[in-house]
Amino acid sequence: MNQKALRTLEYQKIIDQLVGFAGSVPGRELCKHLLPSTNLEEIRTLQHETSLALTRIYQKGSISFSGVSDIRGSLKRLEIGSILSPAELLRICKLLEVCTRVKAYSRKESDDLEPDALDALFDALQPLSPLANEIRRCIPSEEEICDDASPTLRSIRRAMSQMNDRVHAQLNSMVNGSARTYLQDPVVTMRNGRYCLPVKAEYRGQVQGMIHDQSSTGSTLFVEPMAVIKLNNELRELELREEKEIEIILSNLSTRTAEFIEPLLDDQMLLTNLDFIFSRAMLSKSYNGTEPDFNDRGIINIKKGRHPLLDKKKVVPIDIRLGDDFTLLIITGPNTGGKTVSLKTVGLFTLMGQAGLHIPAFDHSELAVFEEVFADIGDEQSIEQSLSTFSAHMTNIVDILAKADDRSLVLFDELGAGTDPTEGAALAISILSNLHRQNIRAMATTHYSELKVYALTTDGVENGSCEFNVETLRPTYRLLIGIPGKSNAFAISAKLGLPEDIIEEARTQLSQQDEDFETIISDLESSRVTIEREQEEINRYKQEIESLKKRLEQKQESIDAQRERILREANEKAHTILREAKEYADTTIKNFNKFGKEGISSKAMEQERNRLRERMTSVEKKLALKQEKRTSKTLRPEDLHLGDSVKVLSMNLKGTVSSLPNAKGDLFVQMGILRSQVNIRDLELIPDMETAPKYQHRSGSGKIKMTKSASVGIEINLLGKTTDEAISELDKYLDDAYISHMPSVRVVHGKGTGALRKAVHNYLRKQKIVDSYRLGEFGEGDAGVTIVTFKK
Q1: pTM
Q2: CB-side exposure of 576: number of CA atoms within 13 Å?
């Protein structure tokens, strides 16, 4: 891929972003040298790896590869028997720790998941945990070897600590004793690895010992007293022994590491590659990228593509097609309208996709594999080479024409600009025709009307335009394929305040042909806006129709299911009734035969007939239930009042209205301890005479009992309430339950600290209507529930 195109299309800026996501030095090096590939299978493999890594990031979060460094030099030294330094061994240890972390990250939550391409890389990792643990045990940091690295080292360092204490004790006795007056400062210092005292120069003869150094002014001499020379010598011997033991420890660790040279090389290569793959995935996540579909047929179909270097919150997505119905796209429109961005988007997407990077576009956007991408974009003026803008562009175009073939993508910005418009347009048409004859995929931007006509009159060439809102003098940055654009110079000038007479005079300078052409373009633009508006309205209607269709289908499915259920239940009930009737008929026939044989009296036979008649009446009532539902009067919301007695037809239960119907006709009905929401169509109003004929002669208290029994539940829940609130509610509930003639009730107070249970029991102990109470047993709620039994 030529470097000029990479530079012109700003490919390096994408690479710089990619490098920022790499966690390791080797991974960053791979990212820096990433170039587009021309092998279709390799591109698809890279894209697939990026997608797999992106899926893992969305599922598990990102993974850091920080700690992976290039250890190949250290492993080469191990091959020839060298001893590695603590820093080198620590780098190997950190690499193995990263390996362990990545291995854990790769574990799948379920064994049922199919393995993918990245699983092979994860599975090949060898954490070598024993080696890493041993290195970390011996070398906690680059400047330190742990005392526990070996028993000998621990012993040497213990002796060194004791010797240091003896030296300091001896020197401190001198500092605080007779030698104090001879010292410049009462401190112990170190020179050349030996403990010394800072003696004043005039008292050098008063302190016997070896002089190791003096101050810059010569007023202070650093003397090692004779009393500690032997101790310092012994301390130095211990230091030499320590260095020798550390060298032995490093040698042992190096020898052990040398056994795993091949696995370590493999781990570094795998981790570097995984870092590279996950960096590509993190880059894709940063701009909401997707995997493009690649082909070798030269077809480009970008759906809602966004230039990755522009602010993703502000950039306008564009749709671009090329290579299917047409191989050459000519884009026209005003300046700053997005023509150049469209060119760069196609070129940069191609380079990114062929490098295995996702593109910021909708799923299943298509890209083609090109051997070369050529771009002539921007001001190529060169002072050093004495080239004008036109000459610089033409030099670049000559080079492109010499190298381009049907496996190339060519991008021209303002083709033919910088010279006489007539000649420039003629040259542009000739250049594009040359590329078109070779079946080369190309895109070009221009202001020349001649190129718009060329696109309209040539097969395989298509016009495109960047939309511009003349009212606001702002581009919309939408790319419209199939419609040539207008430069809108007159409209923009008028909006900016150019006098109308100047604009009119300018119009007269246009030929009739040019004016007609601009009029056609304006009409096309107006038609396009109208068609788009109508298309949006049609799409909206389609969505509404689809929504209504789905709702209708769901409703029909529900009706069908309900119908099947009702028929099934009716068949089952009818079957049961018939079976019972048959059994009873058989029994009756046997009895009559028995009566005939045994000469039973007519009175007994009449009693048997009455029982049979009652049985048949009961069966008829069961069979007449459906008919009764169909013939019952449909209620209206105004027919119902709170407390009215009703019959729920679907349940064949009687109850009391506890809420008025809502807009849909739904209301709540209390049926004993059951409170259920039903629809008004499922209700039948019951007259007061029918509900309680036997209560008519009773007093008001009798009616209260009937109402209470229909609304009081068999338990009360006091959880979450304070003691005072709970006792107040319990008092009212027990009165209602006792009036309703309930034999016993459940009081749910929970376990907790036991304060609420104790308060409840204290209250129950004082109530005259309570016969007894006890804690719930297993299955009743245990100690969290109290069972209360009323007096009869």
Answers
A1: 0.61
A2: 8
The two structure tokens encoding residue 718? 């006091």
C-alpha closest to that of 275 among 50, 432, 51, 88: 50
Across the chain, which distance is largest between two alpha carbons, in Å? 157
CA 55 to chain centre: 9
Give the model confidence (pLDDT) of 614-638 as tens digits. 665 565 555 544 444 444 567 888 8
Q: In whole angstroms, give the CA distance from residue 582 to residue 750.
A: 53
Q: Would you state the pLDDT for residue 700?
A: 42
Measured in residues, the chain has a length of: 792
Q: pLDDT tens for residues 105-126?
A: 988 776 666 788 888 999 999 9
Helix axis angle for 129-138 and 226-258, nearest 10°, is: 170
Cα–Cα distance between 392 and 380 in angstroms, integer?
A: 5
Using alpha carbons only, what angle is made at residue 456 by residues 347 and 468, rounded to the nearest 5 degrees?
60
The neighbour count for residue 361, using CB atoms within 10 Å, is 28
Residue 564 and residue 519 in contact, taking contact as beta carbons nearer than 8 Å: no
Percent of the chain whose predicted confidence (pLDDT) is above 70: 82
Q: For the segment 251-310, what is each residue's pLDDT rounded down to a tens digit?
A: 999 999 999 999 999 999 999 999 999 999 999 999 999 999 999 999 999 999 999 988
3-state secondary structure at position 144: strand
| Helix (H) or strand (E) segment spanning residue 92 | helix 86-105
- Number of other CB atoms surrounding residue 575 within 10 Å: 10
Question: Residue 30 carries which side chain, given as an amino acid letter?
Answer: L
Q: Give the number of C-alpha atoms closer than 13 A to the C-alpha of residue 290, restricted to the C-beta side.
A: 16
Nearest in space to 183 (alpha carbons), one of 212, 222, 209: 222
CB of 400 closer than 8 Å to CB of 376: yes
